[in-house]
Amino acid sequence: MTYTTLLTEEQGAVGLIRLNRPAVLNALNDTLMDELGHALTAFEQQAEIRVIVLTGSDKAFAAGADIAAMRDLSFMQAYQTDFITRNWETLKRIRKPVLAAVAGFALGGGCELAMMCDVIYAADNAKFGQPEVKLGVLPGAGGTQRLPRAVGKAKAMDLCFTGRMLTAQEAEQAGLVARLFPAAELLPETLKIAQQMAAYPLQTLMMIKESIQRAYELPLQEGLLYERRLFQACFATHDQKEGMSAFLEKRPAQFKHE
Ligand code: CO8
C-alpha cells in the first residue's frame, strides 16, 4: 500500500512507520491519521511483524494537529467529524508493542501521539510540549490526561499552562522518555531495541503490554490478579517450556511465538 503522508517498511520482524509531511513538520490531519490507522492495522494483522516503530523526521516527530486545517472548523464540524481523533483509538487497539522514536518537535497532538505509544525513545534534540494554550484551546487528545500520568501533576500543569517545551533531558528525567540517544543514533538504536524485543515470544510481549496498560485502569488488587492469571497462562505455551529449558540447558532459546 502506498500512502501520501507516511512511509512504511519492514525490517525482519519490525514494522517501521515514518510520518512524512515534511513541509508542515508532520502536522497531523485527517488523511495522515486515517493512513496511520491503516498502516498500524496492517502491521498488527501481519503475523511475521512482532514490534512496530513509529517515527518522524530529524526535525519533527509531529508539530501537532494541522492548524491550517483546523482554524476554520465550526463546533459542529469538529464534533461531528471528530477532527484527527476519529482514528485515535486505532492506536489504542494495537496489541503488539508500538515504540515511538522521537527526534525534534513532539508538540500538541504530536506529543499526545507519542504518549499513545508504549515506549518513547528520544533523540537528544527532542522537544515535547502542549502549546495549545497559545492557540486558544486546550490539549484535546490526551495531553491533560496522559501527560500528568507520565510526568506528574506539577509538570503537566506547568507545561499546559505555559505552553513551554520540555527538553529531551528533562523529559527523560520526568519519566516521559525511556532512553535518550544522540540524534544520529536514535532510529538505528530504536530499531535494534525493537529487533531485540521481536526475538522474544510475541504472546509474552502482548501480555506484558496488556498487563501494564491495566496498571493505569484497575485497582491494584485487580491488576495484580490479572497479571497473575496471565503469568499462569504462559505455562500453556511452547515458549515458556522452551525459554526455561534453554536457561537450564545453557543454550539460546528457540522461540516459536506460540
Ligand atoms: N500545523 C500546521 N502547520 C505547521 C504546524 C502545525 N501544527 N507546525 C508547523 N507548521 C508549518 C509552519 O506553518 C511552516 O510552514 P511554512 O513553511 O509554510 O511557513 C512549517 O511548518 C515550518 O514551521 P516553522 O517555520 O514554524 O518552523 P520553526 O522551526 O521556526 O518552528 C515550531 C517550529 C516551534 C514547531 C513551530 O512551527 C510551531 O510552533 N508550530 C506549531 C506547534 C503547535 O502549536 N502545535 C499544537 C497544535 S494544536 C494541537 O496539536 C491540538 C491537538 C488536539 C487534537 C485533538 C482534537 C479533538
Strand arrangement, major sheet = 1-2-3-5-7-10
What name is given to the CATH topology of the largest domain?
Answer: 2-enoyl-CoA Hydratase, Chain A, domain 1
Radius of gyration: 19 Å
CATH homology-level superfamily of the largest domain: 2-enoyl-CoA Hydratase, Chain A, domain 1
How many distinct folded domains?
A: 2
Major sheet details: 6 strands, mixed
- Global outline: globular
Number of strands: 10
N to C succession of SSEs: EEHEEHHHEEHEEHHEHEHHHH
Helix content: 40-55%
Instruction: Enumerate the spans where pLDDT stays under 50 for 5 or more consecutive residues.
Output: none
Using the coordinates above, name the CATH class of the largest domain: Alpha Beta
Question: What class do helices, strands and sheet pairing give?
Answer: alpha/beta
Q: How many helical stretches?
A: 12
**Small-molecule components bound:** octanoyl-coenzyme A
How is the quaternary structure best described? Answer: single chain
Tell me the span between the first and last alpha carbons. 29 Å
Can you tell me the CATH architecture of the largest domain?
Answer: Alpha-Beta Complex
- As a percent range, the share of strand residues is 15-25%
Catalytic activity: a (3S)-3-hydroxyacyl-CoA = a (2E)-enoyl-CoA + H2O; a 4-saturated-(3S)-3-hydroxyacyl-CoA = a (3E)-enoyl-CoA + H2O
EC number: 4.2.1.17
Pfam families: ECH_1
Protein name: enoyl-CoA hydratase
Question: What does this protein structure show overall?
Answer:
It is a single chain. With 258 residues, the protein is an alpha/beta fold. Helix content is 45%, strand content 16%. Strand 2 (14-19), helix 1 and strand 3 (51-55) form a beta-alpha-beta unit. Helix 10 (202-215) packs antiparallel against helix 11. The protein is globular. Bound molecules: octanoyl-coenzyme A (CO8).
